[in-house]
Predict the structure.
Amino acid sequence: MQFGVFTIGDVTPDPSTGRAPTEHERIMSMMAIAEHAEQVGLEVFATGEHHNPPFVPSSPTTMLGYLAGRTQHIILSTSTTLITTNDPVKIAEDYAMLQHLAGGRVDLMMGRGNTGPVYPWFGKDIRQGIPLAIENYHLLRRLWREPVVDWKGEFRTPLRGYTSTPMPLDDTPPFVWHGSIRSPEIAEQAAFYGDGFFHNNIFWDKGHVAQMVDFYRQRFEHYGHGRADQAIVGLGGQVFMRKNSQDAVREFRPYFDNAPVYGHGPSLEEYMNLTPLTAGSPEQVIEKYLTYADVVGDYQRQLFLMDHAGMSLATVLEQIDILAEQVVPVLRAEFDARRPADVPSDPPTHASLVAQGPDSRYHLVRPATLPEDRATGAGSGTEAELTEAELTEENA
């Protein structure tokens, strides 16, 4: 199982000092966090993509390219890449280049984005978020899998005899996750292609998380990629730890109250009761997160948000140390012990995908077969199910 950290890159004043880092300081602290995550043995570092203050990571491939040259083992990912407002042609180019520079240590998480004004800034209509995600991602798959692409869709300029360059390393595209909080259409999209589904559940209760992941699992099996329990699932999380739980709550509370996305709403206690947010001892974190394997089934990736709400770099690095030394080894052993032998322990990596060979389903543009009987299976006949037309932007 992969454990790692993800960042949203907010620039927020530290409530203990009142001082906010400069954008440069914040960016470099994120790089330090990624390098430290590798040093302590975590498997993944992922960065969000934002184009508005108080967030700074507007160019993930620039950041991850820098890290590719300074790390050796950690997987470099996104959380998320905006498949709606970015041109899929540019995504294909940028992430294939990054994949080459990182020696294959790249995957990425597609997402629609949750900041409404971003859409018009990039010439898109937020009301078309789902169709944009569907059309753009299918074009991206073609660009990464076909040497020459002729294409016409609804949302961008047609392509004629276009070859994306560079093509993916070893002709094997990066593994893709589809990140969603509440859209079954995105879970359906992940299931159709046999991609991973990441539920960033840091705002949501277990009932909602279970519903979303179960829907993805059922559709994954429906499209013939394997059993539902073999689907590739990732979850988000957030923790703050001290040896004594009361110390953890007392120290974390000002950050929670100051957070641009958490504060000024439900209390810390309410959030901790309903969501994966845990301020407590390492033992309490372990106890809380072990329950998620019961909620969503055996899953393959757990990412933690550690740097948030103005927390100092020193504190974040200290928290990562606690996570890696006291929490992850126990979670890994417990998750492995309960996982059936034929359920994947890890998500696909570049090495595993290359090993499958060029004729594997992974290399197909459309690896799933649309069911003949669309009246069967969860989600059939609903807005959640992708239409064949949406999945087959035919050449003009």
